[in-house]
Amino acid sequence: MSTAETKAQTVKERAGYALNNEFLRNAVKFTTERLRLGKKLASEEHGNWDAWRERGRQIRLHTIAHLDYYLNEFAEQARANGAHVHFAETAEEAVAISLQIAEHKSAKSVVKSKSMVSEELHLNKALDSIGVEAVETDLGEYIIQLADETPSHIIIPAIHKNRYQIAELLSAEAGEALPPDTAIMAGFVRMKLREKFLEADIGMTGCNFAIAETGSMVLFENEGNARMVTTVPKTQITLMGMERIIPSWSDLEVMATLLPRSATGQKLTVYMSGISGPKRELDADGPDEMHIIIIDNGRSLQLGDPEFQELLNCIRCGACLNACPVYRHIGGHAYGGTYSGPIGAVLTPALNKNVAEWDDIANASSLCGACYEACPVKIPLHDMLVSLRRRKIEAGRGDKLEAMGMKGFSAVMGNAKRYRSVVSLGKWGQKLVVRGGEIRTRIGPLKGWNSYRVTPSLPKHSFRDRWPEMEQDIRRTSGTMDPVIADRLRERLRMQKSGKGENAHD
Amino acid sequence: MTNETDRGWLTRLEEQSRRKQEQFMDGIAAKLGRDRIRSAPEHPFRGAPDFWNEFNWPLEEKITQFTANFEAAGGHVVRLSHREEVTRFIRDKAMEMSAATILRQQEDALDRLGLEESLPDALVLSWNEAADTDWRAVAARADFGVVMADYAAAYTGSITVKSAPHKGRSVSLLPTVLMAIIPIDRMVTRLGEILVQFDQAGREQLPAGIHFISGPSRSADIENDLTIGVHGPGIVYALLVDSYET
Q1: Taking CB atoms and an 8 Å limit, are A250 and B199 in contact across chains?
Q2: Which residue from A70, A131, A209, A264 has the highest number of Cβ atoms inside 10 Å of its Cβ?
Q3: Collapsing DSSP states into helix, strand and coil, what is residue A397?
Q4: Do residues B149 and B181 make contact, with C-beta atoms less than 8 angstroms apart?
Q5: B50 inside 8 A of chain A by CB
Q6: Which of these three, A265, A297, A329, is where a domain ends?
Q7: Between chains, do A72 and B165 touch, taking CB under 8 Å as contact?
Q8: pTM for this structure?
């Protein structure tokens, strides 16, 4: 985290930076559009998409509801496969175990495939601090590691870099000028990282899914670097969020149907690998020693929380980022945490136990629900964002000015007479502040509202003013009502009056 | 800690891990507001929806769909009628591309191709045929990797390979070109038909590595521009064989 955008303290400042960066804005828009369209086509072609989403949701709900059983089973089966399993409650513990393994192996270098958990832990810096070189091997991750930045999209981490910037970074690494040509640049990375894979002491991966019944871990990828990392080095470390579990290989079919289609629109990623323990005794490749570090780091705080437990169902596909109108404008860095987009806006404060304090990223959403529609396991992210805002207010950390505005609004709207007098007052009063039909002034009762929005000026004739005239108009122009409908309405009215109607409580 | 043996260190780590494991599981159960669950719960939603499990294509449709999917992902598909045609195809490609080193899995079905005799000018090696060789390094230098597919799934256009002492994970990963031979009776419609077999086999029967391969290695990380062959093979041939007689 060294670039200008991360120095900004609030989501508003970081978004401001992003909105002023035209390349970033266009790149994010283009990429998210490509991925979103890919998902749309792939899910439509597959068919019965909602039935699959529902099945995915049920499998995740079931697993999380019985997480103690399945996680325990996974650990036992993984040990039976010959893997060493570790548990870490905090990021610090996970880092300490990783460093201990690296020190014990006298490791000089670690090759890594993409892992969001590793980003959570800031593991590269920790490895560097004990003199171990950590090399990111996913092409996008390698690029942002050279730039000393963080991923801005969960699937396309270097979404914010253009080919000229990338050529500059790679040229510095190559010691010669490389042209900004994708094939040539990718060719250089292939050659450079081949050496790294072959000389590395440790391979480190994340984990898309862990199969409880057989102690296997599953990785989805397109480049082949996760296979490299799990095949070539002598020691392998897998970082795994404690909620990554699914019960069986049969359940994997559902996840394999939902994840690639939702992430990139592919029917399956180029590689899907199921790794069950270290190499068998007579095998000639695969790691001699395999460590699986199971990490909590705030995840278990969601268990038993009726509003947030479903966060643990997330399969990290990124579809909510691509669907989100806010993410598409401000990009990933504006969210200021490891995870961006709608999932990040909820997950970051949830994992950090400080739902109430965490910045203001819950406000970086229009609550339109596109994230929920896109989610392959139907996590109600928009509801969670509302819950987050509510908890913030309840903890007394709301915006005082906005709260005052809301209070005034309720006082005025709660009483018809008061509303009428306020509107007629406003019609005269606004003459002082209206410019071009809009009110942008941030004074008095409008300050909290107008800091982020523009209030339209009050019309000369309000809807209320015009209603008697409009009612006459409607009566004159509309034809007679269908007698069947009229009967039904009369019946409903009669029921309401006698207090038996379904809506009588109003 | 410097004097501690590797085994001693691992034993200590395991004791620590087992203690922590109990705390972890107790903590989860407490947060969920119930006692620990110690036997497998009823899982009413296991696997794909029922309507899906009845879905099957006839053989020719499987081949058509596999071909379309694999080609859409940037792979090549060739249909051959018998083993001799496979030998001929690989030989011609090796000569056309001037392949100097060909690494194949060590199994009877591939012995019978007779690639060694067909390509006298190339170095044809079998995985793990000699104990004192660094086979990973050999694979990294090889031009062709030749494998038998254990299964293939038509719906996703995927080849499945399982590791074994004589079947290296590196052979389908490190060479520049991958040749995967698929006897057509190993082709199924859905991914689930393959996955369920691992459930049925059970943990003890699983190899260390099970890999599904659905085309050449790819990335769109530079400006969304598709690049082929980033880390794995950039050229992948699926050779569908009507009667291979393995």
Answers
A1: yes
A2: A70
A3: coil
A4: yes
A5: no
A6: A297
A7: no
A8: 0.86
